[in-house]
Amino acid sequence: MNKERFMIELERLLRGLPSDEREDALNYYREYIEDAGFSDIDDVTDKLGTPKQVARSILGESVEKHVEVQREKKDVRSGASTLWRILLYICAAPFAIPVVAVVAALFIALVAVVFSVGVALVCSGGAMIFAGIILIPAVFWSLTTPQVMIVIGAILVLIPLGVIWCIGCYKVCGVMLKAVAGLARKMFVRKER
C-alpha cells in the first residue's frame, strides 16, 4: 500500500477521534513517512503495519489518555453521570427483566420445537424400518405368488427407504441444531469491534 492510500485509509479509520487528536496523529504519520523517504510506489505497511493496526494503536492510546484525564479530574460530573446511569438501570429493570425472560422463553421453545421435529422425523424413518421388518413373516403367510411378490416388494421398499430417511433426517437435524446455535451466538455473544 503506497503512502497516499495509507494516509487516506488511516484518516478514515480515525474518524471517531476528536479532531485535534486526529490531526495530531495524522500529522505525525505524514512527517514520519516523509522523513523515512518512502516514494509514491513504496509499500509503507512493511515498516508501519496496516492502517487498521496503526489506527487501533492510536485509538488505544487515546482511550488510555482519556481514562487518565478522567481519573485525575474525578469531578462532580463524572460522579453525577455514574449516579444517573445507576438510576436509569434501576428504572429500566422492571421493563428489561420481562423482556429478557420472554426472549429466553422463546429461545427455549425454539430449541424444544427443533428437538421435537428431529425426533419425529427420525421416528418416522424408524417406523418404516420396523414396518418392513414386521412384514417379513407375512411372506410365509401369503397364499398366492402375487401376494408374496407384493409383500417382498413392500419389504424391499420400506427398509431401505426407512434407512435413507433416518440418515437424511439425522443430517437435517444437524443443520437445524447448527442454525439454532448460530442464532444463539448472534443473540447472546457480543461481537468484537
How would you sum up this structure, described in words?
The chain has 193 residues and is an all-alpha fold. Helix content is 85%, strand content 0%. It contains seven helices and no strands. The chain has helices spanning 3-13, 19-36, 45-48, 51-73, 76-134, 136-141, 145-188. Helix 1 runs antiparallel to helix 2 (19-36), helix 1 (3-13) runs parallel beside helix 4 and helix 5 packs antiparallel against helix 7. It is elongated and about 100 Å long. The mean pLDDT is 83.
Fold blueprint:
Blueprint: H1 3-13, H2 19-36, H3 45-48, H4 51-73, H5 76-134, H6 136-141, H7 145-188
Terminal CA distance: 24 Å
Q: Which class do the helix and strand fractions yield?
A: mainly alpha
- The oligomeric state is single chain
Order of helices and strands: HHHHHHH
Q: Give Rg in angstroms.
A: 34 Å
Major beta sheet summary: none
What is the count of β-strands? 0
Can you count the helices? 7
Mean pLDDT comes to: 83
Beta-strand content bin = under 5%
Report the uncertain regions: none
What gross morphology would you assign?
elongated
Q: What is the helix fraction of residues, given as a range?
A: over 70%
